[in-house]
Amino acid sequence: MKTKNKGSKTTATFAWIFTIVIGVAFGVITGLVTMQWSTVPLFVASGVVTAFIMQLFINLSIKKLANRFSNEMELIKQGDFSHLVDSKSYGVLSSVSSIVNVVLSDIRVLIDSFFNLSTSIVQASRKVGQTSKEASAAMYEISRTVDEIAKGASSQAQEAQQGVQVVDKLSEQINFVYESYKGIMEHTGKINELNEIGIQAVNTLHGKSQETFEATQKIFAVVEKLTNTIKDIGLFVESIENIAEQTNLLALNAAIEAARAGEAGKGFAVVAEEVRKLADESRKSTEEISNLMQSIQEESMLAIKSMETMKAVSQEQNKAVEDTNNAFRNIANGITSIVDKIQDVSVSVSNMQRDKDEVISVIENISSVSEETAASSEEVAATTEHQLKAINDMEEAAKSLDALVHELDSRLKKYKLR
């Protein structure tokens, strides 16, 4: 910093010496030309002043250019690369500004390349992250499925051994089922009759529900009409209140006029007072009526809400009745289907009895295959765990890359290119 100040002072001293020398030379040359030595000091002084003014003008011009150049450099320092320096307007500094423009253009291209590169890296890292997440989820599901398969295969092998014993017992039960199916056929007929009775009862209930719904609709209409009538009565009561207030004012004015009339107006004053009392009583009565009508109106609104609730309940009831009716019909269809299936079961039971030994052989083969499947599943599960770990590591690396690219992008955004 001291070296810079020292250089500035040396430059300023040299500029002033140069100014004085130019001024003296100008005065001497002018004196020689005019051959008037007595005017040489005057010309020397005028030359010094002229050189001083020229030097001052040059310094101001250079300082103005330097300040403007410094401002543009400050914008560049702040990261604004969106414009170039106008080199033609800087005179002696045009070469420097041209070099700055070249550097600015190169930096803009470089930063723009960084922007494009960071965008591509972000897209790639996100794609890798998404792919790794999907692969991780898939591998997790595979691992879980393989583990379940292994457990299921082991369990299946054990259960297959038990299945052989169960099949023997099943054979005995098949005979019992065959004998029982005959009794089921008899009970099915009775169930079908009861189902028909239920359908008729539901149809009757549906008719009653419809009548209840229609009655509710009528009550709702009556209550709604009553509510509108109460509103009209409220308007009438409000008019009566207004009339009572006006009557009260007229009675008060009449009392004032009677007081002014003196003795002759006493009778009129009594009448006016009675009118005022009647007006007050009318006002009180209308207030009581208004309160009563308000209470009735509130009760009617509650009645309307209750009727709306009843309406909704009635609709739900109708729907429930229809659903019940459909359920009874489905039961009837199901009973018919059951009868058919029971007959098929009878045939199947006979076939099952015949094929019992073959089933035992198949179960033994299943037990053997299940044991082999359990062993293979354990090996696949171990391999899947290694793959899942590798995919998780790749996902973490993608996250780290995404964070680094975001940091680079945030730093690049402070530069203005356009």
Task: Tell me about this structure.
- The protein is an all-alpha fold and 418 residues long.
- It has two domains: 1-78, no CATH class; 118-412, Helix Hairpins.
- It has five helices and no strands.
- Helix 1 (2-34) packs antiparallel against helix 2 (40-77) and helix 3 (94-261) packs across helix 4 (266-354).
- It is flat, with a radius of gyration of 55 Å.
- The two termini are 36 Å apart.
- Residues 1-15 have low confidence and may be disordered.
Order of helices and strands: HHHHH
- What integer is the average pLDDT? 66
Please report the distance between the alpha carbons of the first and last residues: 36 Å
Shape from CA axes?
A: flat
> What is the level-2 CATH architecture name of the largest domain?
Orthogonal Bundle
Count of distinct structural domains: 2
CATH superfamily of the largest domain, called what?
A: Methyl-accepting chemotaxis protein
Strand content: under 5%
CATH class of the largest domain: Mainly Alpha
SS elements, strand count: 0
